[in-house]
Write a structure and sequence with these properties.
With 763 residues, the chain is of the alpha/beta class. The chain folds into two domains: 4-396, Alpha-Beta Barrel (TIM Barrel), CATH 3.20.20; 420-508 and 543-762, Alpha-Beta Barrel (TIM Barrel), CATH 3.20.20. Helix content is 42%, strand content 13%. The protein contains 27 helices and 24 strands. A hairpin with a 2-residue loop joins strand 3 (102-104) and strand 4. The longest helix is centred in the N-terminal third of the chain and has 22 residues, at 33-54. Bound molecules: glutamine and zinc ion. Zinc ion is lined by residues 442, 612, 652, 654, 737-738.
Length: 763
């Protein structure tokens, strides 16, 4: 028997983002529900066939989702919050209402909360639990999709979020219980899903329990024992207990106790964990070796992976090992063969890369090479791989001596503002004359199809740079006038020149390459196209100064310069894996610092350095967190500290839970921080209040991820809540994120209401 292969999940947006396009067309009423369902079925089908043709043994099923796999499970087991009860008639509408909120036909309900899936930039919809929560299997999506694949002759390995992980990533919506106590109620519905899969002929089921890579309480450990004993008792399915994004460490013993048929571990994130896991692995359990990185785009180093696989093979025998991706390929772009632009992605760099489709082939080749009787084709692949890896290692493209010199010259003073916050804020108030509860936005204004069409025409050479610049200046002027009319206090230029907040900067920095189609799902239908950082980073020239100073020239109100911070640029890029991430982050910090200083020189008084990604980089284990946060804070401070006291530095973070990082957020020492708060009804603020967060703060008063127009009263209510826990003099009033994805009409109405709310608060 050869070594088996497994893929943990495949990207579901489609090779050309077909899912995004179909969903958006459906939401806009341009295609029917049937057409949407067909587009989805087509994606599943082509994913399955692609993996089958490549020779994968354990092909994932139920890894498709219209929005998010956690939301899928919530829907299937009827963990549907009460406020959606009137929408139960149509399952798909109900599902999208939970994701988006719903404001139609006299019904007005908010969306469920959304947050980042562990340390990724993929967002899931947070399950909401009440004390008397009931679960009932109302729809077995996993079974549906299993049958669908069977019709193609493919017996898939359905993938489910594990019961313990599911409960722990959810949230109690009322006091008086702990969500883990719901396990007994959840298990029957969960097991029903499994039983139906079994009766349909499923052999393996992949149950994702990334929570096993975090620090567990005894109560959670007990929940694990109970859950997996119940599952084993109820079904004969072979359970692939799947962990990723970290190592099991001490939890390896617990995982072994659960006696799954297969245990999957992430050997990209935790290569050191192999021996410890093998030591405790029960005799009847196979080990799935996650050696092909599901989260980065570098070619697998076959020689290194083979060492790991051989090691495991020598200890367990080849029947007991499976070669796999480290995690779902959901976090990888689709296909390197869709990249044809040698200018943005030079051939030398492309040679070093591997996307989802290539990773599938890597898994198959590795298993073949380790299996003892490799094919000629695999041997050839190993030769090419060795040459490619060596080419990257020795390439002059990755090194820049100037950058290295500058890095060596960084002193601790680089990370210090001139004076403490108290003195700075006084100087800023003298400079800016803002009212109490000053209003502002987070940066971007609606990116209409028209604006995007200018950029694409410019990129294709259909309009000249002068024409493009003139069009954007027109847009900036309109955006400034609208903000003046609405009565906002600190204006922005609107970011219409930016495709994406990271790509825009990456394109102007050295050391970055760009894909044309390297899309990765971020939330719902939204995808991002992370840049590839392959070399040392520097800033050849100013990146934003012309646009911002133009906007400032149009108005007497302060215009806020808008930059993306070093942690976020790092976090939302595919980062080189040949030097520590912190080194790359510091290089970016120096580049952003140069920009901040140039903006100040050009007369800009308020500068926002967005860091929405700080929290998502947080290691899963508490013991590793301080080191990461210290480096992240240092990088932010290096970028922010080149200016005088009177220049006001803002930062923005969205969808963050702050409780466990509040000390470091304070250490960032931004003069003003704007955060997400609307979806959580200000509960986020607790952390800031308790900590006595000293600097100014703008808790987002409305959720921009939904087209819903918030009422004045609703925002006043949120602001009152905020003013109860924080000093009103600290507070700013703003939406919870950028407005890029919204339409103009709803944006204007929402901001008008927001300014009214601020005025009410001032009185
Ligand atoms: N300034 C950015 C914008 O408004 C911030 C986006 C974000 O936080 N993700 O679009
Ligand atoms: Zn944001």
């Amino acid at each position: 028997m050869s070594i088996r292969t497994s893929i943990l999940g495949y990207p579901r947006v489609g090779a050309n983002r077909e899912l995004k396009k179909a969903e958006e067309a459906y939401w806009a009423g341009r295609i029917s529900k049937d057409e949407l369902l067909q587009a989805a079925a087509q994606i599943r089908r082509s994913n399955w066939l692609l993996q089958k043709e490549a020779g994968i043994d354990l092909i994932p099923g139920n890894d498709f989702s219209f929005y998010d796999q956690t939301l899928d499970l919530s829907l299937c087991i009827d963990a549907v919050p009460e406020r959606y009860n009137t929408l139960r008639d149509d399952r798909l509408e109900l599902y999208f209402a939970m994701a988006h909120g719903y404001q139609k036909n006299g019904i007005d309900v908010t969306a469920m909360e959304m947050t980042k899936w562990f340390d990724t930039n993929y967002h899931y919809i947070v399950p909401e639990f009440v004390k008397n929560q009931e679960f009932k299997l109302t729809y077995n999506k996993a079974a549906q999709e299993f049958k669908e694949a069977l019709e193609l002759g493919i017996k898939t390995k359905p993938v489910l979020v594990g019961p313990v992980t599911y409960l722990l990533i959810g949230k109690e919506k009322e006091a008086g219980f702990n969500r883990i106590e719901l396990l007994d109620r959840l298990l029957p519905a969960y097991i029903e899903i499994l039983k139906e899969l079994e009766s349909l002929g499923a052999e393996f089921v992949q149950i994702d329990e990334p929570i096993l890579c975090t620090d567990l309480t005894p109560q959670v450990e007990e929940a694990y024992r109970k859950a997996y004993a119940a599952i084993a008792k109820a079904t004969g399915l072979k359970i692939i207990l799947t962990t990723y994004f970290g190592g099991l460490a001490d939890n390896a013993v617990l995982a072994a106790e659960l006696k799954p048929a297969v245990l999957h571990i992430d050997l990209v994130r935790a290569p050191e964990s192999l021996d410890g896991v093998i030591d405790v692995l029960p005799a009847g359990t196979a080990l799935s070796l996650g050696v092909v990185d599901g989260r980065n785009i570098w070619k697998n180093d076959f020689r290194k992976s083979l060492e790991i696989i051989e090691d495991a093979k020598s200890k367990l025998g080849q029947e007991r090992i499976i070669v796999a991706t480290s995690c779902s390929l959901l976090h990888s772009p689709f296909d390197l063969e869709n990249e044809h632009n040698g200018k943005s992605l030079p051939a030398q760099v492309k040679r070093w890369l591997s996307f989802a489709r290539q990773k599938v082939a890597e898994v198959v080749t590795l298993a073949d090479l380790a299996g003892g009787a490799p094919s000629e084709c695999s041997k050839e692949a190993l030769k090419c791989n060795t040459a490619d890896i060596e080419d990257r290692r020795t390439s002059p493209l990755t090194n820049n001596d100037e950058v290295k010199k500058r890095m060596a010259a960084v002193t601790p003073d680089f990370a210090k503002r001139k004076s403490p916050f108290g003195e700075r804020i006084a100087a800023q108030h003298r400079e800016l004359y803002l009212p109490l509860f000053p209003t502002t936005t987070i940066g971007s204004f609606p990116q209409t199809t028209e604006v995007r069409s200018w950029r694409s025409k410019f990129k294709k050479g259909e309009i000249t740079r002068e024409e493009y610049t003139a069009l954007l200046k027109g847009e900036i002027e309109r955006t400034i006038r609208i903000q003046e009319e609405i009565g906002l206090d600190v204006l922005v230029h609107g970011e219409s020149e930016r495709n994406d907040m990271v790509e825009y900067f990456g394109e102007q920095l050295s050391g970055f390459a760009f894909t044309q189609n390297g899309w990765v799902q971020s939330y719902g239908s939204r995808c991002v196209k992370p840049p590839v950082i392959y070399g040392d980073v520097s800033r050849p020239k100013a990146m934003t100064v012309d646009w911002i100073t133009y906007a400032q020239s149009l108005t007497d109100k302060p215009v806020k310069g808008m930059l993306t911070g070093p942690v976020t640029i790092l976090q939302w890029s595919f980062v080189r894996n040949d030097q520590p991430r912190a080194v790359t982050m510091k290089q970016i910090a120096l580049a952003i610092r140069d920009e901040v200083v140039d903006l100040e020189k050009a007369g800009i008084k308020v500068i926002q350095i967005d860091e929405p990604a700080i929290r998502e980089g947080l290691p899963l284990r508490k013991a590793d967190r301080d080191e990461y946060l210290d480096k992240a804070v240092e990088a932010f401070r290096i970028s922010a500290s080149g200016v005088k006291d009177s220049t006001q530095i803002h930062t923005h973070m969205c969808y963050s839970q702050f409780n466990d990082i509040i000390r470091h957020i304070a250490l960032m020492d931004a003069d003003v921080i704007t955060i997400e708060c609307a979806r959580s009804q200000m509960s986020l603020l607790g952390a800031f209040a308790e900590f006595r967060y000293p600097n100014e703060i703008g808790p987002g008063v409305y959720d921009i991820h939904s087209p819903r127009v918030p009422s004045v009263d609703e925002m006043v209510a949120l602001l009152r809540k905020a003013a109860q826990v924080l000093n009103p003099a600290q507070l700013w009033v703003n939406p919870d994120c950028g407005l890029k994805t919204r339409g103009w009409e709803e944006t204007k109405s929402s901001l008008q209401n927001m300014v009214r709310a601020a005025r009410i608060m001032r009185n």
